[in-house]
Amino acid sequence: ETGVTQSPTHLIKTRGQQVTLRCSSQSGHNTVSWYQQALGQGPQFIFQYYREEENGRGNFPPRFSGLQFPNYSSELNVNALELDDSALYLCASSVAAGDTQYFGPGTRLTVL
Amino acid sequence: GQNIDQPTEMTATEGAIVQINCTYQTSGFNGLFWYQQHAGEAPTFLSYNVLDGLEEKGRFSSFLSRSKGYSYLLLKELQMKDSASYLCAVRDGNQGGKLIFGQGTELSVKP
Fold it and tell me: Is A31 touching B (CB cutoff 8 A)?
């Protein structure tokens, strides 16, 4: 059974650019949640997708957007990057919206 | 508001027992999770409590008291590899599966 995978592992962008991060959920999981984790902090909830629909959103501006595909993989898009967007972005999948979430290895984004 | 508190750092000795506390104030409580996170890696699921009481899983146990908004993670027979950050997270029942995390407790296990 394949776990949650994310790509790329690391990414360096400059202010104002746009970025797309990708996540493949664990087999049999139809829900994907995205989190932002700054250094030394706990993960902060960005949003969750359940069967291709957004199912809850945290306190992030609209320039953070997402998508879930029919195979339940997901993308996180961030427009107009700011320096404070530098963080580890974690994707987690679960069997259903309220079940235990299993995390992928994350994408380390650095904004210069 | 929603708030989760846990100590920032703890130190313990190899072979000993350590208890990491977590207090929370959230709306729509629907379960509490503990995750382990080694530096630069993803959080790994350790335990889940939704009812009051103790859940035991090998060297790890987790306790929940919903009336007190309190949980703890107990690690027995500490090993060097247990050095990691331990994250307490509450599931918000009002927003699907949203997890609200504490800042994490950095545990250092010394020989």
Answer: yes
